[in-house]
Every structure is written in structure tokens, then in C-alpha cells.
Amino acid sequence: MEELSLEKQPVHLPVINFDPLIHQHTVEKRHGDLLPNTVRAIVCGPSNCGKTNAVMALITDPNGLRFENIYVYSKSLNQPKYVFLKKLLEPGRLFRIPRP
Q1: Alpha-carbon torsion (19, 58, 62, 82), positive or negative
Q2: Whether 34 contacts 40, CB under 8 Å
Q3: Is 96's pLDDT higher than 70?
Q4: What mean pLDDT, rounded, does the chain reach?
Q5: Distance (Å, rounded) from C-alpha 52 to C-alpha 30?
Q6: DSSP string spanning 34-92?
Q7: CA distances in angstroms from 41 to 55, 61, 63, 77, 95, listed in the order given
Q8: d(CA 100, CA 94)
């Protein structure tokens, strides 16, 4: 397999965010500071690669996703993390996940 090499090019194409020029009003942030306002994602990977932990972090961290509904599809929703998530998201329950 050939190794990837990066070379700085003499000609550049700047990518400008035209949103502020076109949208004169400010848009309220829907999610945390690390994410755009619209997020579409499929989380996939081999067993034990951290998919569930990554999704749990997105759901529970203040810089993660803000949501009205969550749909979890799994062959085994009785896993301890999914049971924990279900309890965590019960209506009226305020939660704070201790961070290391």
C-alpha cells in the first residue's frame, strides 16, 4: 500500500462561509458548540468499537445534541446502557452525568 503524502500547493481556493452575508438575522444554535444546526448520522462500526458510548456522549453531554425525540434501533435493547438511557430520559427527570 502506498503511503499518503501531503504537499502544499502554490494556488489556494478559500472556502468562505456566505451564510452571514445572506442571512442577516442570527440563527439560534440548535445543538452544542461543536455541532452544526442540522445533523444526520448513521453510527456504524464493528463490535466493541465504542458506538454506543459515542452516541451516549452525544445525547448526554451539554455540547452534544439537543433533541425532542430519540429513536434507538437495536437487536438487543435490554443491554445495560440502553436500560440506563431509558431511565435517564424518563419524562420529568433532570440528569447530570458525572464527567471524568
Answers
A1: positive
A2: no
A3: no
A4: 82
A5: 23
A6: TS-S--------STTSSHHHHHHHHHHSTTS---S------S-TTSHHHHHHHHHTSTT
A7: 10, 17, 17, 20, 25
A8: 20
What is the C-alpha to C-alpha distance for residues 98 and 10, in angstroms, rounded to an integer?
Answer: 48
Over residues 7-53, the pLDDT tens digits come to 999 998 888 888 778 877 666 778 877 788 888 888 899 999 999 89
Measured distance between the N- and C-terminal CA atoms of the chain, rounded to whole angstroms: 39
CB 95 within 8 A of CB 60: yes
Residue type, 2: E
Take residue 6 and report the three cell numbers written for it.
Answer: 501531503
Q: For the chain, what are the domain ranges?
A: 36-91
